[in-house]
Amino acid sequence: VEGKTANRWLDLGPTFVRRVLITSVWLGALVSLLLVFYAGGGVAGAFAIGAVLGAGGLFLLERIVRELLGPSRKLRLALYLFGKFGIVYAAAVWSLFGLHVPPLPFLIGFTLVLLVALLKVGGRLILSTRWMASSREGSGGPLLRQGPGSRRSGP
């Protein structure tokens, strides 16, 4: 894919982290609800706690980077750093050692935001490949472009 099409798909933009957080929260809530019925409340609670702490950590990391790249506000940066490394990680340690939540579902929930980000980037890479690109304006991949009876399947 050449020109603007390739750059458009690969450009993650400034809202990428926000979209990852929203998707992670919805996916985490759905998986937690399913885990209540299939694995029990303890596993679902551990997964939910991990997902919330993982999303909070990513949110605070994004805020730390914005403060470092923007105008210098040392107090706000210190609060974000304390929230990320003091509150999020202390809550994770307290959940694992104080509440004795199961570690595997907690870890899976904590890394859910990384999985969502990886899948979002992977999807954009797949959509930007030559196979999915169109030789004509406004059409999709090869299955959309050359289907039987398609008006677009010309020379």
| Count of DSSP strands | 0
The radius of gyration computed from the alpha-carbon positions, rounded to a whole number of angstroms, is 21 Å
Count of helical regions: 7
- Beta percentage is under 5%
Based on Cα principal axes, name the global outline: flat
Quickly give the structural class: mainly alpha
Beginning-to-end CA distance, first to last residue: 20 Å
Task: Give a concise summary.
The chain is built from seven helices and no strands. It is mainly α and 155 residues long.
Detail the topology: elements first, then pairings.
Elements (H helix, E strand, L loop, with lengths): L3 H7 L5 H23 L2 H29 L4 H25 L4 H8 L1 H16 L14 H4 L10
Q: Describe it for me?
A:
With 155 residues, the chain is mainly α. Helices cover 72% and strands 0% of the residues. It is flat, with a radius of gyration of 21 Å.
